[in-house]
Write a structure and sequence with these properties.
Layout (H helix, E strand, L loop, with lengths): L1 H14 L5 H23 L1 H8 L3 H25 L5 H19 L5 H27 L7 H30 L1 H22 L14 H5 L2 H21 L2 H8 L4 H49 L5 H13 L2 H10 L6 H29 L4 H19 L1 H5 L3
Helix pairs in contact: 2-4, 2-6, 2-7, 2-8, 3-4, 4-6, 4-15, 5-6, 5-8, 6-7, 6-15, 7-8, 7-12, 7-14, 10-14, 10-15, 10-16, 11-12, 12-13, 12-14, 12-16, 14-15
Subcellular location: Cell membrane
Keywords: Cell membrane, Membrane, Transmembrane, Transmembrane helix
InterPro entries: MFS, MFS_dom, MFS_Efflux_Transporters, MFS_trans_sf
């Protein structure tokens, strides 16, 4: 068995220069359903509130609890599973996603649903960093950024295509059908992955590759700060996107907002696939700048016919490459155990979602939904400044 694994690795190393598109696309489908699993409550807030007899903050917490579970468990579980076969681990995580979503769609107790969301969050906490590192081990070093961009494109497609589809399903057939349907799709992806993905052994965790060693790297700390600012800014508004849409009375409602947001996201992720390896710093600065422009447009002209849609499009342009840029940036700072480095970044990413969800919920409890726009802008300004001066870190190539 060990010889077979080594042989498989050698085959992929020899063909890495050709770039394994089909394998990367399959991995992208995993991140596609992963982001849907995390964010689906955002598109059906009113339906879940009415069915479960809970308030808006409790419903938003279904995203927040998921995120905090990912943040808390990512680093210890990635460290514990470093030596696990990558394929076997991914299949286990997909099973967890599938079962938790299907059961959420079948039960009626809010506390049970919270527990299941936490289980899903734990699976996500391990999946996000490991799948990026898994993909990078299948390509030449010069294609690492491209591999991350393709794999993480699933998150953008999930938001741009998946979310509108799932929201429509939720509105037409009920939010429960939405969750059960996603669970079945995830199960299908797991079956395909069983036969299609290469078997890659894990790595030995050492003192030099531990999470604590990674956190002593100043460049990594810069990336983590940028992650905190970027994710909190984006998700603070995105988790309650339905409230923003209702506030400006956008023509076409939430489906229209997600469509334009998604088109922008798809365009930017295609650019990220092509440009991340060469222009990481420029793309990071542009991401923060576009978020500021989109939020100001939404604030000042969002109620003007057509302009609100442009604002959501620009927001999508900013949002699309967020995951790709931050994971590519942190992976450049270490030579070995990229799973651990990306797990640290992923923990901060998910912790930031939790912070965003909680802070945005508090703002909504006191102010109008437009306060979330100010929230995003205030966080994006230091993001631009840090990105501009982090030339050495964001331009670093191993």
């Amino acid at each position: 068995m060990e010889k077979q694994i080594v042989s498989t690795q050698n085959i992929y190393h020899k063909t890495a220069s050709l770039f394994p598109w089909m394998i990367m696309i399959l991995m992208s489908s995993v991140t596609f359903v992963g982001i849907l699993s995390e964010l689906m409550p955002s598109g059906v807030l009113p339906l879940m509130m009415a069915d479960l007899n809970i308030n808006e903050i409790q419903t938003g917490n279904l995203v927040g609890y998921y995120a905090i579970a990912s943040a808390i468990f990512a680093i210890p579980l990635i460290s514990m599973t470093m030596q696990f076969n990558r394929k076997h681990l991914l299949l286990l995580l997909l099973s967890g996603f599938s079962v938790s979503n299907i059961i959420v769609g079948l039960v009626h107790d809010y506390n049970v649903i919270v527990f299941l969301r936490i289980i899903g969050g734990i699976c996500a906490g391990v999946m996000w960093p490991m799948i990026a590192a898994y993909g990078m081990r299948l390509v030449d070093e010069k294609h690492h950024g491209k591999a991350i961009a393709v794999i993480m494109a699933g998150t953008t497609l999930g938001i741009s295509i998946g979310m509108p589809i799932m929201t429509t399903i939720g509105n037409e057939y009920g939010w429960r059908a939405e969750f059960v349907g996603l669970g079945v799709v995830i199960l299908a992806i797991a079956v395909i992955s069983l036969f299609a993905l290469p078997s890659i052994p894990g790595e030995k965790l050492t003192k030099s590759s531990s999470p604590f060693a990674v956190l002593r790297n100043p460049a990594v700390l810069v990336i983590l700060l940028l992650t905190l600012l970027g994710v909190t800014a984006h998700y603070g508004a995105y988790v309650y996107i339905t409230s923003l849409v209702d506030e400006i009375d956008l023509a076409g409602g939430i489906e229209s907002a997600l469509l334009f947001f998604g088109i922008g996201s798809m365009i930017s992720v295609l650019l990220a696939i092509k440009l991340t390896d060469k222009y990481l710093r420029l793309l990071t600065i542009t991401m923060f700048a576009l978020l500021i422009i989109s939020m100001i447009t939404l604030l000042m002209f969002g109620r003007t016919i057509g302009v609100g849609h442009v604002a959501f499009f620009l927001w999508g342009l900013s949002f699309g490459p967020l995951v790709t840029l931050m994971q590519a940036a942190v992976s450049r700072q270490v030579e070995n155990a990229k799973d651990v480095a990306t797990s640290v970044q992923s923990s901060v990413f998910n912790l930031s979602i939790m912070i965003a969800s909680s802070a945005a919920g508090l703002l909504l409890g006191v102010y109008s939904p437009m306060s979330l726009v100010y929230f995003a802008v205030v966080l994006s300004i230091p993001g631009i400044i840090i990105s501009f001066f982090a030339k050495k870190t964001l331009s670093r190539s191993l």
